[in-house]
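Most newcomers find our protein records easier to grasp once they have seen one. A record pairs a protein's sequence with a compact description of its fold. An example says more than a description, so a record of this kind follows:
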Amino acid sequence: MFVVLLWLFALTPLLCWALLARTRLVGAAVGVVLAGLAAALLALDHDLLFSRAAVEAHAGYPVAAATVILAGALAERRLRGPRPAAAYGNRAGAVTAALAAHTLTAAVGVAAWSMFLGEPYYPGLAELPLPAGLRIASDTGTSPGCALGGCTRTLALAAPAGESPAEAAERLRAQLAGRGWTPGPGGCLQHPHGWLLDDRRVQVWISPGEAGVQVDLVGADLYH
């Protein structure tokens, strides 16, 4: 059910424009832009795309989509003149109401989401930039479950031929430090998970083993 609501939220501006468009050229151009915005939002929702500004993207999506629709409507007005009230007046009113509800939904959704902001979470693999040559040999994913303080996914990294696990671990630490990761509690390195509205952090513990490098990637809550 939740997935259906996410898709409906993403596709609402495109459906609104389908009701409003009057010309092929502008209609198609605006439709492509709206489809691109919807695809990017759905990619974030389904973990196909990672961005630290994911929350901000959801909050700003209705405004961005409404701006594109308004620009399209104004462009069509220049091409074809004012919209005939008899044929399009009801559609324009319905679209305006739908876009207003869309914006309100985003505001309520972000506010509700912020109530659970302190909860632990599973980090995505896109949050861990690996140096060249290191590859993931195994990943526990989201199966272990979450403990007090965070959700942990454990990765086994295979080092390239000729490089010891200790050297690979040190190279990984150096790369993360160069990407802005800072020392955290218990000897971990940590980095912001979000941007403005999401102040959670992702933590990583790195330890060399006999056959490779073990990495514990932790989505910590805000209280530990």
Q: What stands out?
A: The chain has a mean pLDDT of 91. The helical segments are 2-20, 24-45, 54-80, 85-114, 165-178.
